[in-house]
Amino acid sequence: MALGAGEVTMLELADAYTQLSRQGERVATNPILEIRSSDGSILYEKEVVTEVSVITPGAASLIREILSNTANMPSSWVSMFSIRGLKLAAKS
What we know:
Strand order of the largest sheet: 1-4
Helix content: 25-40%
Number of domains: 1
Structural class: alpha+beta
Order of helices and strands: HEEEEHH
Number of strands: 4
Distance between the termini: 16 Å
Shape: extended
């Protein structure tokens, strides 16, 4: 199946890319870190929940390597996706 051809939510897509960056480790995607009341007390705090992996660490590493290789990117992207000290991956 071509990327982008299936109907998935943005959270499902974020979950898939998170597994690539975490060496195949699957963590439940929850964008809300905490909720505080008007007096500053914490009403809700995010718990990190690790789930069953669906990709091996080796496969995640290979995909990340392919997506971060500047030879695979359009030449105009190389300067946009270059931050000294960080290795970034991009998908068109």
